[in-house]
Every structure is written in C-alpha cells, then in structure tokens.
Design brief:
Elements: E1 4-5, H1 24-30, H2 33-39, E2 61-63, H3 85-90, H4 94-110, E3 115-117, H5 140-156, E4 160-166, E5 179-181, H6 184-191, H7 193-202, E6 206-209, E7 213-214, E8 217-218, H8 223-233, E9 239-241, H9 251-256, H10 271-279, H11 285-305, H12 307-310, E10 313-314, H13 323-340, E11 342-346, E12 355-360, H14 385-391, E13 397-402, E14 418-419, E15 427-433, E16 446-450, E17 454-456, H15 458-463, E18 470-478, E19 484-492, E20 495-500, E21 503-507, H16 517-520, E22 526-532, E23 538-545, E24 563-570, H17 574-586, E25 590-596, H18 617-627, E26 631-636, E27 651-654, H19 662-670, E28 703-705, H20 714-719, E29 737-745, E30 758-766, E31 772-781, E32 796-806, E33 811-818, E34 824-827, E35 832-835, E36 838-847, E37 850-859, E38 863-865
Helix pairs in contact: 1-11, 2-10, 2-11, 4-5, 4-13, 5-7, 13-19, 14-19, 17-18
GO molecular function: beta-glucosidase activity
Family: Belongs to the glycosyl hydrolase 3 family.
Domain PA14: 422-582
C-alpha cells in the first residue's frame, strides 16, 4: 500500500504547513459550522480531525502511562515498557520521574504521536481498585509531585501530557454510570490536589475527563469542574478531552467546556445533531468557536514542536530499537525498577551471595511487565525473573527451578511450540465475511499472520470494511515438547470452538459466563484437554464467530469490542507442583519464590475482589517456607496484597511491575548489586476491612459514597490507630540510616500566601557498612488546637528528596522548601484555602506512623487564598 501524508499537501509533493503560522482566531472565522463540529470529535480512535482546505492537520495520540502502545490493539508495535506508576512513586525520586517522561516522549513520537494519554493521578482510595497500579499513590502530594516531574520530562520532549482521569474515577465498578459523592473538603484536599499540584508546577497540555459522575453530574459535562475550576480558577489553557466513549451528551458537554469527544467520528457530535441544537438555541455558536479554538491552539502548539511527526508520510509505526536507544532505555528501566523495589522484610537472608538457591513460583519464568487495560503493551524485550537471577548470579550461587503452582487467570498464550503453516514463528489468521443473508463467504476476505494469540480485533475489522458479522479462524501447527495432557483455553467476545486436528477440545459456543477479558466484553475462559505425543505434529484451530449466542449478556458500550484469546500449556496438578516445590526447597540452602499478580488480575474495567494472591499461591508459599525457612518472597503486584505467610519467611521484596528489565532489577536487589531504597507509596492493610473505603468501595445503585472524607490511606490508619501490615513510607535497606538536627527557617513578618516559604533540613547519616540511596520524607503537623475546630491529620507528607551514593559513615543534609500548600486546608464555609494559626511542626517520617524530630514554627496571621 502506498504511503500517504497525514496532512493535506501543498504545491508539488510538499505538505502544506501554513497552519503552523496561521492565526487561530482567523482560522475559526474561515471554518464552516460543519467543519467546526468535525473538529470537536476525533477523526478515528487515535487521531483528531483535519480540515484539508485550510491546511489543518490531524494529530495522533497514544495510550500510556508506562509505555507508548501506538494505534494497534491487536498487532501492537513493540515498545519500551517502563515500571508501573506505583513502582515509579516508590523511588521517591523526582529526577527519575522526569527521565521516564523524556523516554516516553521519544517513544510516543516513534509511534507518530504527539500526545501521550498519561499520567494517571487518581488516588488509591482502595488498593483493590483495578487501576491502582496505574496511579502513583494514596497520598495526593506524592501523586502531584511525581506527576509534575513526569509531565515536565514528557513535555520537554515536545509531547503533550494528558493528565487523567479528572476526577473521582478511583474504582472501576460501574465506572460509566457511577456517581462519586465527595464532600467539598476531601474533593479539594485529596482528589483534586494531585491535579492542582501538577497544574501549578508543570502545566499539562491536556486533561482527560473521567467516566463517572461527580456529585450528580458526569465529569465530561460539569461546568463547575471544567470551566469554573479548571479554566477560571486554575488558569488552564490547554485541551480538555473525554475519556474514550466518556461523552454522554451534546449541548451539556459543549456548553460545560469539553473541547474534544474521543474517539471519533463523533457519536454525540454528529454534524446534523449539533446543527439542530444550534438552531434550537441550546448551543451558542460562539461557544462552539471557543471549543474549536482550544482544539486548534493545542494542535498547532504540538504540530509546531513536532512538524517532522505531524507532516511525515503515514507509514508503519517505528520501533526505537537501535543499539544506543536499547542500551539507554534498558539502563533507565532497570534503574527505576531497582530503586522502586521495596525491601519489606529481611531477617538477614538478603543479599544472597552463595549457596544452592531454589527459584520457585508461577511468575519466575513469566514475562510479567505491566498491568492490564490501557496500560498493557507489547514489550520490545522482556527479562523474566529467572533470566535475571540466572544471568546475574554470583559465581558461588547455584540455581534450580520449580513451578510451584498456578497463578495466572488464563491458560498461557501460544509459545514457540506453535508455528504457522509454513513453519515460521506465529500462527495464521483468516477472516470470512458473513453476508446479509447469513451465508458465510467461501473465500477469506483477509489473510494475515501474527505471533501473540491475544488479539483485540479492531484493526482486522477495519481492514474487512467493518462488516456486521464475520468469522475468524486462528490456525497453528503444534509440535509439543513433551507427551501428556495439554490444557487449551479460550476467551472470546462472540462464540467459537477450539479444535485439535478434527476434535473439538473447547466448545465456547454455549453455556457462556461473563468474563473480564477485552475490557469486560469477553466470556469467562473455557478450557479443555487433549493428550499429545512429543514430536508429533497437530493442527490447532480456533474458529470464532462474531455473533453472540442469543442467551449471552449484551455489550452496553458504544464501541462493539471483538477479541479472541487462545492458550495452551501442559496440564499440571497444583498438588504435584506444590509437592515438587517443597522437595526443591528442602534440597536447597535458600529459596527465592517469585509470585504475585499480573495484567489479568490488575486491569482497567474491573476491581480486585480481595487482597489475596490468586488460587493456591498463599498455600504454596506457606508449604515452601515450612520446608525451608530461608525463603525470600519476591512479589510482583501493582498495589497491596495480603501476606498470611509473612511470619514464616525470612525476606520479602516488592518488585511491582518492572517493565522490560524486570528480571535484571530483581536480580540487582536480590544479589545486592543495588542497595534497596524504595519505600511504599501506599499503606498495606492487614485485612480488607481495615481499608478506609471498605464499606463504600463500589457503586451501590449508582452511588459511591466517599464517607471516609479526608481520612484516606495512612491518614485513616493513623487517626484510628490501626496497625497496617506495612505503613506508607516503609522500606528497608542493606544499610542503616540515622536522622539528626532537624530544623526549619520560617519566614519573617507576615508574607502573603504566595510569598510564604519555609525551609526545612535534616542531617542524614549512613550508619551501616554499605553505600546506598535514601529518600527523606518531610511531614507537617498542625497546631494541637485550631480556631476552626476542624480535625486535621496529625501529620501529612509535604515534600521529599532523595540522596544517592551515601557512603558508610557519611552524613549529608537533606533540605526542602515548603510553601502554602504544606499548611493549607479547604474551608467549606468560606470556600477558600485557609491556614490554621498557631504552632506548627515539621517532622521527618521513618514511615507514616513513625516520626523523627519536631521542628516548630509559628503561623501568626491569617492566610486565605484560591487558585494555584
């Protein structure tokens, strides 16, 4: 297929770039009403609309937040996968967050995009939220500061950030129709604050509205939220776009200030409908002009910064796989993964330098690099935990392996045992269109090949011309590595069957149950078994009919999602696997268990049911630890998990989702090449009932009552004197740290709120025997008695700084500057930010429950402010 330009051409073959220097107000005047309306919705799923006659180009956006996936859901472009947001936040390193943004800018532009749909700064109100791994923290200040650094790096690379989801999408249950009922004070102090901090410090290019309602009004059509707060109070001058299919009205959203409906073409902003409402005086055309001007101003800004991207010939998305890019990206990803890893427990077993070590667990040889949903992408490369531990082990370490038990939700995707018909890696795909009479075409309308047997089929449907009904056939040649029973599993969006040769092994055409795959559009996985012989060749086929059984549940979202997933693996009994793991543990000096969750369990579209690891993982860990107490558990998860076996193991490392370099980062910590410096950006509860939002975490007949108010995360645990499993800020090291000489230099006189500054510093000493890095966390504590009689958290995080390469015996001064944000609360009566007068204090957090020192300062005059 011949390459075509993204933008209209000028004279000859050169694209018309007059838009880059055009006057936006003049362009708006030249547009017809229909052209204006087209600009207020996407051109397609990932691009804005264009107006060729005026030289207005379309620009492309791409999903984040831990990698730039590109335009394809099925045949995804390989990408650099950074560690997930909680891992990045656990580094407590603003420079690392900024470096991550720089890398993501380069990745976005390689995909032809000038906008990354990230970062996510929703609060981890409950660690069970499906997208908790995608957000930074339960703490609004940490979330806002990390987001600001991330945005700074991204936009320094010329790529627009899209901070999201604005606001109150803190859980996935019934997210499109739920109503987050949040009182003014927690709305301001907890849920809006990360956005406010990022807006003040980094000025993101775009905001994405959330799916849900907030206090009765959908965020995408809330004039107070979009116009009064964001535009007027905060001075935002960029683009406001909807989440995908998160627009629910025409006049309400346009009048409220939603500039861009995504995706496109517009479902609500169809020209005929909008023209009708303009004629009915429900929308003033001047309001449309304002919305269009915002879109054009944003497009022009990022087109000017990236003309080589916007005006390039539209060819395949690029992969940044040069030796230099690969080395630099790998070094950064590995560094973030190692600095973000949190040493939760260490009874002297770590670091490991010698001995027979049994590596056990369902995640050990799996490439678990990211969470699921919009954050999921195809990793350009992936170092598994086993790869990292084997490839980096000291000479005196001898490794062995045992599977342990199952931990994944779905049967493992097709691997190297499955090839296409000609013997090449991958499998063949054929698509047959069903005519209006219901007859299936005898010849395929599309023949293709791919190598990942988990496919959203959007681009294939597009290539077929988006027929109403069709049948897809995935076929592969299967040459098993071992004899015995193999388990096959499929989850699909329509109906289908899996064949081995001519035998139906899985029938997914009936008795379907709702599942979680494909953004909750797929069925629960169906499984079946087939006995195979090593070395013999079999033909495996998945025949998928896009039609849903008449008794199946209905898809209620505007985008009709179609997908197929096929997996196969040796049938393994968990009883046998646990027994083998126990035997391996007994034969070893030490054990490293790699377990946790993955993108099937932590994902957009659904929340986790509880804190436990899945299936029999907890049982397996307990059995292995009973056989060999010298056991270290390495956990891969994006948020808090339960640990009923904690007292039985010698060490626990929380590795999060570490991106491409997962295994190397884990090895760096386990073997002591990196001294752990990660600290928890969220509290780990002992039980689900200890979570502040435990009784109000779901939509209850559409309403979600945020009854915990400002008492979220560690503020809840501290106020109610509940002992968490691990507190916010917890993180051990291979050395020890001591604080001394905490002091503050308060402002003199009575400065205005914008001028108020407080310098705080503390001396940090490495009192151990190993060099390391250490983040220092500064909290403020309010006066014991307040004039407003409001309750405040006894202390709250306000700033942090990280010290690197501190040698044994060395002392360094950690210093920060605090501003009005560190002492302000939202006054619901006055509807302003206010500062309590009296004796305040700065404290340093060993963790959120253990404070060092108390440096007091006085606030002797009233301070009241609004805005930023």
């Amino acid at each position: 297929m011949a390459a075509t330009d993204r933008s209209p051409r000028g004279h000859g073959n050169a694209p018309d770039r007059s838009f880059l220097t055009a006057s936006v107000p003049q362009l708006v005047k030249q547009l017809t009403l229909d052209e204006k309306i087209l600009l207020l919705a996407g051109k397609n799923i990932w691009e804005t609309a264009e107006v060729p006659r005026l030289g207005i180009p379309s620009v492309k956006v791409t999903d984040g937040p831990n990698g730039a996936r590109g335009a394809q859901f099925g045949k995804q472009t390989s990408a650099t996968a950074l560690p997930n947001a909680t891992c990045l936040a656990a580094t407590f390193s603003s420079p690392l967050a900024e470096a991550a943004g720089h890398l993501l800018a380069a990745e976005s532009k390689a995909r032809g995009a000038v906008c990354l749909l990230a970062p996510t700064v929703n609060i981890q109100r409950t660690p069970l939220g499906g997208r908790a791994f995608e957000s930074f923290s339960e703490d609004p200040t940490l979330s806002g500061l990390m987001a600001a650094s991330y945005i700074t790096g991204l936009q320094a690379g010329g790529v627009s950030a899209t901070i999201k989801h604005f606001i109150g999408n803190d859980q996935e249950h019934e997210r499109n129709g739920s109503n987050s009922i949040i009182a003014p004070r927690p709305l301001r102090e907890i849920y809006l604050r990360p956005f406010q901090i990022a807006q003040r410090l980094a000025r993101p290019g775009a905001y994405m509205t959330s799916y849900n309602r907030v206090n009765g009004i959908h965020a995408s059509e809330d004039p107070w939220l979009l116009r009064e707060l964001l535009r007027n109070e905060w001075g935002f001058d960029g683009l406001i776009m909807s989440d995908w299919c998160g627009t629910y009205s025409v006049s309400e959203s346009i009048n409220a200030g939603l500039d861009l409906e995504m995706p496109g073409p517009g479902l609500w902003r169809a020209p005929a409908l909008v023209r009708h409402l303009v004629g009915a005086n429900k929308i003033d055309e001047r309001t449309i002009d304002r919305r269009v001007a915002e879109v054009l101003g944003w497009v022009q800004k990022y087109a000017k910064l990236n003309p080589e991207v916007v005006y390039a010939a539209k060819g395949p998305e690029k992969v940044r796989d040069s030796a230099e890019d690969r080395a630099n990206d790998a070094a950064l990803v590995r560094d973030i993964g190692a600095q973000g890893a949190v040493l939760l427990k260490n009874d002297g077993i770590l670091p490991i330098s010698s001995g027979k070590v049994a590596v056990i667990g369902p995640n050990a040889k799996s490439a678990v690099t990211t969470g699921g949903g919009s954050a999921k992408l195809r990793s350009l490369w992936a170092v598994t935990p086993w790869d990292g531990l084997e490839g980096n082990k000291p000479d005196a370490v001898e490794l062995s392996y045992a599977f342990g038990c199952h931990g994944a939700k779905f049967v493992r995707l097709l691997d190297e045992q499955f090839t296409a018909e000609d013997g090449e890696h991958g499998f063949d795909l054929k698509f047959y269109v069903r005519g209006r009479d219901g007859e299936l075409a005898t010849e395929p309308g599309l023949v293709d090949r791919w190598d990942v047997s988990d496919l959203l089929l959007g681009e294939f449907q597009e290539a077929l011309g988006r027929p109403a009904q069709w049948v897809a056939e995935l076929s592969a040649t299967f040459t098993p590595h071992q004899s015995g029973e193999y388990e096959f599993g499929t989850t699909i969006t329509g109906s289908g069957k899996v064949y081995v040769d001519d035998t139906v092994v899985v029938d997914a055409s009936k008795d379907q149950e709702p599942g979680t795959s494909f953004f909750y559009a797929g069925i629960a996985e169906k499984r079946g078994t087939f006995k195979v012989e090593r070395g013999r060749t079999y033909t495996v086929r998945l025949v998928h009919d896009s039609r849903r059984p008449v008794d199946a549940g209905k898809q209620t979202q505007p985008l009709q999602i179609h997908g197929i997933r096929l997996g196969a693996q040796p049938l393994i009994s968990d009883d046998d696997a646990i027994a083998e793991a126990v035997a391996a543990a007994r034969a070893a000096d030490k054990v490293v268990i790699v377990a946790g969750l993955n993108s099937d369990w932590e994902s957009e579209s659904y929340d986790r049911p509880d804190l436990s690891l899945r299936y029999r993982t907890d049982e397996m860990i307990s059995a292995v630890a009973a056989a060999n107490p010298n056991t270290v558990v390495v956990l891969q998860a994006g948020s808090a998990v339960g640990m009923p076996w904690l007292d039985s193991v010698a060490g626990v490392v929380l590795a999060w989702y570490g991106g491409n370099e997962t295994g190397n980062a884990i090895a760096d910590v386990v073997y002591g090449r990196a001294n752990p410096s990660g600290r928890l950006p969220l509290s780990f509860p002992r039980r689900e009932v200890d979570i502040a939002a435990a009784l109000n975490a779901k939509s209850a007949r559409t309403d979600i009552h945020y009854e915990e108010g400002i008492w979220v995360g560690y503020k809840h645990f501290n106020a109610r004197r509940i002992a968490p499993l691990f507190p916010f800020g917890h993180g051990l090291s291979y050395t020890t740290w001591a604080y001394a000489d905490l002091e503050v230099a308060p402002p003199r006189g009575e400065p205005s709120p914008d001028e108020w500054r407080l310098e705080a510093r503390v001396t940090v000493t490495n009192t151990g025997k190993v060099a390391g890095a250490h983040s220092v966390h500064f909290y403020t504590a309010p006066p014991a008695e307040t004039a407003t009689s409001l309750l405040h958290p006894e202390h709250a995080l306000q700033a942090f700084v990280k010290l690197h390469d501190v040698q044994p015996g060395e002392s360094r001064v950690a210093a920060v500057v605090l501003d009005k944000y560190a002492v302000s609360h939202w006054d619901e009566r006055w509807k302003t930010w206010r500062v309590e007068q009296g004796t305040w204090a700065v404290r340093v957090g060993v963790d959120a429950q253990t404070m060092y020192g108390r440096a007091e300062f006085e606030v002797g005059h009233d301070m009241e402010w609004t805005g930023l």
